């Protein structure tokens, strides 16, 4: 086949330009990324050969080769791993098939500094493109294991690339960088220098489980064919960090392993080590990231930690080892007694896997709790990035619900900036207060401005301000904490006046009798949309509000279930009136005095629309609501 020229996908071309124009402050990491890709390719081949013994592939000496040619200024990273087919090269190298591409590029452009850009790129996992930071041209030659023909890919990073088939490509992949001149001003070292390559590999890739080899420099005293050819030198120790004692491993080495398994440029927020001994032995090295990845809430995103058996890589994204709400945790788990040919289906039913899952989950949750106690800043970072995900566990993991509630924190009316735990809330509860109050909404501002908050604000009663969609679900699932019921201030009857002596019972009864006719008439008039109209004890400023019955789903929860494809019947809501508001007093007086109540019926519609708008909803018929409001404004002028 002749050489074909293609244009990069638009997003890939934009990313390529960002890489070329010095996004990274430390360009040494290009080699780490290429070695990491080679390591993954070797893992995949060994695994595929394990599952399919008929695969025509040599796995006798899997390794990574580094070759330097100082005369032509090239550096080549070669592996004899799984390789790629012609179609795979075009799909994986020429395009970036990811639903978050557009958002990623936008955030990358908006990042204010190089460190922020590096972090975004690391999250996206585009290490191959890092080669263009140090090279004028990149050539890739690859042959997929088991196939007869190989593929050559080449580009100068200027918007196009070429593809052609080759007959003599060895199994695996080689990436040759045609290096730019060394330039201290642009932070480009001489990557043709063997000592520089050794330094980078020792710093970033020493833990890689496959040998990384490089021929030593030629002996200048060698004069003839009788001199023996130098043996390749292995540059990495290949020691599994999780199998070494704490004293033998530095924080920097842990951080480099995290960057390798987590595809992140930043250091982890916390490192977790776990060693289980006894009837079933395993070791784990887990990391809590500092920033949420772009695909944290993407349904099809890969999640899970790497699974090894007796130091042999088995699986990259082992979902069975941690629950979905800990999908942000990265790391390695190495088991001693699992079968090497274990599959994802077997994992889901293996009792040893279930034992590890329970222990690892408890260890991660206890680490978060310890982090809250010893370092509030780092805990605040973790909760800001992953609190929404962790709260999913309150719904899906009843066994660990109490452990999550021990460190879960929420904004509240008592705290301007510092979130509060439920334990701290209970300790601050007023004398006689029996319930933990909360309100959900799209933002803190919208919740604080809600009519439902008025009586609580006047009485100085603390309310939790919950703004994540999952808050609607977990609050119902948890129900109570330390014997205190969790109560939404927008649901059911909340008679705060019953706890005060300011309003005698006789006065309340008289007020109820005075409004009885209006309430009955409004209930009948608004029957299509409202199940009941009643007087409110939660309003002090606003004239009206709508609330849900104590056991009904809120509108937000109804919408959430419908978005998930579940049929949920809409429940009629309750309209509450503030008997002390002049508008409501005037409406009651007009009801008593007028026999023709057609105009009052329109006023009732306006009140319901106002109440719906106040909680962030929309009137049933927006155009009619606007017309009714315009008519009343016109008559008031």
Characterise this structure.
- There is one protein chain.
- The chain is an alpha+beta fold.
- It folds into four domains: 4-219 and 230-234, Histidine kinase-like ATPase, C-terminal domain (Heat Shock Protein 90, 2-Layer Sandwich); 241-380, Ribosomal Protein S5, domain 2; 409-489, Rossmann fold (3-Layer(aba) Sandwich), CATH 3.40.50; 501-636, Up-down Bundle (Four Helix Bundle (Hemerythrin (Met), subunit A)).
- It contains 21 helices and 23 strands.
- The model is unreliable at 97-101 and 112-125 (pLDDT under 50).
List the helices and strands and how they pair.
Layout: E1 4-7, H1 10-20, H2 29-51, E2 64-69, E3 74-79, H3 86-92, H4 101-110, H5 114-124, E4 135-143, E5 150-155, E6 160-166, E7 172-179, H6 194-204, E8 212-214, E9 233-234, H7 251-262, E10 270-276, E11 282-288, E12 305-309, E13 312-318, E14 330-335, H8 344-347, H9 351-374, H10 376-390, H11 393-396, H12 401-405, E15 410-412, E16 415-420, H13 422-428, E17 435-440, H14 444-448, H15 454-459, E18 464-466, H16 471-478, E19 480-481, E20 484-488, H17 505-525, E21 530-535, E22 544-547, H18 555-563, E23 573-577, H19 582-593, H20 598-614, H21 622-636
Parallel strand pairs: 2-8, 12-14, 17-18, 17-20, 21-23
Antiparallel strand pairs: 1-6, 2-3, 3-7, 4-5, 4-7, 5-6, 8-9, 10-11, 11-14, 12-13, 15-16, 15-18, 19-20, 22-23
Helix pairs in contact: 4-5, 9-10, 17-19, 20-21
Integer count of domains: 4
CATH architecture of the largest domain: 2-Layer Sandwich
How far is the N terminus from the C terminus? Answer: 82 Å
Taking all Cα atoms into account, the compactness measure Rg is 33 Å
Low-pLDDT sequence parts = 97-101, 112-125
Strand content: 15-25%
Biggest sheet overview: 9 strands, mixed
Shape descriptor reads: elongated
Instruction: Quickly give the structural class.
Output: alpha+beta
Number of strands: 23
Under CATH at level 1, the class of the largest domain stands as: Alpha Beta
Kindly report the CATH topology of the largest domain. Answer: Heat Shock Protein 90
């Amino acid at each position: 086949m002749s050489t074909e020229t293609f244009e990069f996908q638009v997003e890939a071309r934009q990313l390529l330009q960002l890489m070329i124009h010095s996004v990274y402050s430390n360009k040494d990491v290009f080699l780490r990324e290429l070695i990491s890709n080679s390591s993954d390719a070797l893992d995949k081949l060994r695994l595929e050969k394990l599952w399919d013994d008929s695969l025509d592939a040599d796995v006798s000496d899997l390794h990574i080769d580094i070759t330097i040619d100082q005369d032509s200024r090239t550096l080549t990273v070669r592996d004899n791993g799984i390789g790629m087919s012609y179609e795979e090269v075009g799909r994986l190298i020429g395009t970036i098939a990811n639903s978050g591409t557009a958002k990623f590029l936008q955030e990358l452009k908006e990042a204010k500094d190089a460190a922020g850009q590096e972090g975004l790129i690391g999250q996206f996992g585009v290490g191959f493109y890092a080669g263009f930071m140090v090279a004028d041209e990149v050539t890739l030659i690859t042959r997929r294991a088991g196939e007869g023909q190989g593929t050559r890919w080449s580009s100068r990073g200027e918007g196009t690339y070429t593809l052609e088939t080759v007959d003599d490509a060895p199994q695996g992949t080689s990436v040759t960088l045609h290096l730019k001149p060394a330039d201290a001003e642009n932070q480009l070292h001489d990557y043709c220098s063997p000592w520089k390559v050794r330094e980078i590999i020792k710093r970033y890739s020493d833990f890689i489980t496959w040998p990384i080899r490089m021929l030593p420099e030629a002996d200048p005293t060698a004069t003839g064919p009788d001199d023996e050819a130098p043996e390749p030198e292995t540059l990495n120790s290949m020691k599994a960090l999780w199998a070494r004692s704490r004293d033998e491993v530095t924080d920097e080495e842990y951080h480099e392993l995290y960057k390798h398994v987590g595809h992140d440029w930043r250091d982890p927020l916390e490192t977790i080590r776990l060693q289980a001994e006894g009837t079933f032995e395993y070791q784990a090295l887990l990391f809590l990231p500092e920033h949420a990845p772009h695909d944290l809430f993407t349904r099809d995103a890969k999640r899970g930690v790497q699974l090894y058996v007796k130091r042999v890589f088995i699986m990259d994204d082992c979902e069975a080892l941690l629950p979905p709400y800990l999908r942000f945790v990265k790391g390695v788990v190495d088991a001693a007694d699992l079968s090497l040919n274990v599959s994802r289906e077997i994992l889901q039913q293996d009792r040893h896997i279930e034992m590890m899952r329970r222990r690892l989950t408890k260890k991660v949750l206890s680490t978060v709790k310890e982090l809250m106690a010893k370092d509030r800043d780092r805990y605040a970072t973790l909760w800001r990035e992953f609190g929404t995900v962790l709260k999913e566990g309150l719904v899906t993991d009843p066994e660990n619900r109490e452990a999550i509630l021990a460190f879960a924190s929420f904004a509240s009316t008592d705290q301007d900036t510092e979130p509060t735990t439920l334990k701290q809330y209970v300790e601050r509860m007023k004398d006689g207060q029996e319930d933990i109050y909360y309100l959900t909404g799209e933002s803190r501002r919208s919740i604080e401005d809600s009519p439902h908050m008025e009586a609580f604000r006047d009485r100085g009663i603390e309310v939790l301000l919950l703004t994540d969609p999952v808050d609607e679900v977990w609050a119902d699932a948890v129900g109570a904490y330390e014997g205190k019921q969790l109560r939404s201030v927008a649901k059911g009857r909340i008679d705060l006046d019953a706890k005060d002596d300011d309003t005698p019972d006789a006065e309340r009864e008289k007020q109820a009798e005075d409004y009885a006719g209006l309430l009955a008439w409004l209930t009948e008039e608004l029957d299509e949309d409202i199940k009941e109209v009643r007087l409110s004890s939660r309003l002090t400023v606003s004239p009206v509000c709508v609330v849900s019955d104590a056991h009904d789903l809120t509108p937000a929860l109804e919408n959430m279930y419908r978005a998930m494809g579940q049929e949920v019947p809409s429940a009629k809501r309750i309209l509450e009136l503030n008997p002390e508001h002049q508008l409501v007093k005037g409406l009651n007086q007009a009801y008593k005095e007028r026999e023709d109540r057609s105009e009052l019926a329109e006023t009732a519609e306006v009140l319901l629309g106002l109440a719906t708008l106040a909680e962030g909803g929309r009137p049933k018929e927006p155009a009619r609501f606007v017309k009714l409001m315009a008519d009343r404004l016109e008559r008031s002028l």
